[in-house]
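Objective 1b. Sequence-to-structure analysis of Valine dehydrogenase.
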Amino acid sequence: MSVDVFELAHEHEQVVFANDPATGLQAIIAIHSTALGPALGGTRFYPYASTDAAIEDVLNLSRGMSYKAALAGLDLGGGKAVIIGDPGTLKTEALLRAYGRFVQSLNGRYYTACDVGTFSVDMDHIARECSFVTGRTVAHGGAGDSSVLTAFGVFQGMRAAAEQVWGEPTLAGRTVGVAGIGKVGRHLVRHLIEDGASVVVTDVHQPSIDSVREEFPPVQAVADTEALVASPLDVYAPCALGGALTDEVVEVLSARIVCGAANNQLAHPGVEKQLEDRGILYAPDYCVNSGGLIQVADELEGFSFERAEQRASGIFETTRSVFELAKADGVAPAIAADRLAERRIRDVGRLRGVWLS
């Protein structure tokens, strides 16, 4: 059964399908909202099982970017793009430049950046055809790898969650399970080790595990995510792809906190209530993982790592505000985060209706 784009994307402003047979490019760009400013979001290069799967992913991710930018206090809207295919075999300079021309055709309604399967050097190729690119290499005046501040922000959110549950904003003496130790997960492990936490990891890519354990010998590894969530944990940090928090995972999870870098962690509506019923505090993903967005957004005004890091440190207070509203309104933190984001989109976005020359 095929996806009805208009039914799934009823909130979205625009969905663009880009096709360049000569390079093999098949991409989808989704613009969820430009109420607060131009849409910004990364380009994911991934071998989706079907076009329908790619459509669903890009729509969910772009909506999440609108909420992420709003909650982070940025004057940006939400967008996302996916390129369908295996980046290991399909990615070429020609394909990236063809993709850049499609982004350019949107005339600034959408700014792209890195995501799963794309890197700063890829953004440099795209920028040869496109003016609306961020997350570029340092050599080209960019911010470089946005995973650095993504991990830093997740760690700040985790500290706020620890304060909520245990009374102190530290993970010292706690056991944290990290699922996915790629670009972001690896940096998160470093923050946790430096804070005095015990860390258990898993990843589908064995060399990533080997590399992390070589750098941080105290880190333990388990075979897979199923084994990790069944382990005795204080905190579970999903840092791979979305949909990590399923009914089955919530049922067996021993952790008191869920706080990770993955987007769209809740497998379906209602999971946030199940977490609450089990006494597990969920730090909403788009709240805590906005450090990378803050980093690449800062690049648009001339990048300063110190300024971006200072802004990302505010994720601690933002996460604390989400927990406070959740308690005051008697709702799950995921709902409280949505309310805060929607309030800003409504209140500030309304001003865009006042025409200025």
